[in-house]
């Protein structure tokens, strides 16, 4: 819903600040209706700001100045990107409890406006220092990213070399085992051949003895017959 209030500033709420001091901003709400309205202000970082008043009523065709200040001193490296939401609706009842009043509101009857915020230093030197600080922070992040990427690449390269070395070592172990098995195979092969040769010689020796016995027996028999 629109047309209940007008807001100044309309888009960005500037906080005047000095280094290591509280920042302050001023917001003006204009009731463009002849009827009394209710308003409520919320922020995305409630612990960082003090809003006075944050809720209330504004009579018809009247305005209300809202004072907003930080709850802590602002540094040059302070992150400052809070957003503010201003809700407004016509007061159509005599309800005095604002919390109860807003709980009973229909969303379609509420005008909602959002503002961004930023720091504006009163001292130009502080403004320049803030920009330099932000630039330095940005450069630092770029440098950190570069260092991380470089280290990550070196780590991957080292891991690759290490893996290759491990593979070479594993291949060498396999080759040594294969050579050892090959030597053992040749040894057992020679031993089997030797056993086969010895067995053959032994067999031939037995056959020779048997043949000699047969010859002797034949000679003896022949001698006896000749007698």
UniProtKB/TrEMBL annotation:
Q: Outline the segment boundaries, as ranges, of region: Disordered.
A: 116-141
**Compartments in which it is found:** Membrane
Membrane-traversing stretches: 210-226
Q: Which residues form the MSP domain?
A: 4-120
Q: Which domain of life is it from?
A: Eukaryota
Q: Which InterPro entries match?
A: MSP_dom, VAP
Q: Which GO terms describe its biological process?
A: endoplasmic reticulum membrane organization; endoplasmic reticulum-plasma membrane tethering
**Low complexity composition bias: residue spans:** 122-135
The keyword Nucleus belongs to this UniProt entry's keyword annotation: no
Pfam families from the UniProt entry: Motile_Sperm
Membrane topology, from the record: Single-pass type IV membrane protein
Q: What is this protein called?
A: MSP domain-containing protein
Native species of this protein?
Paramecium pentaurelia
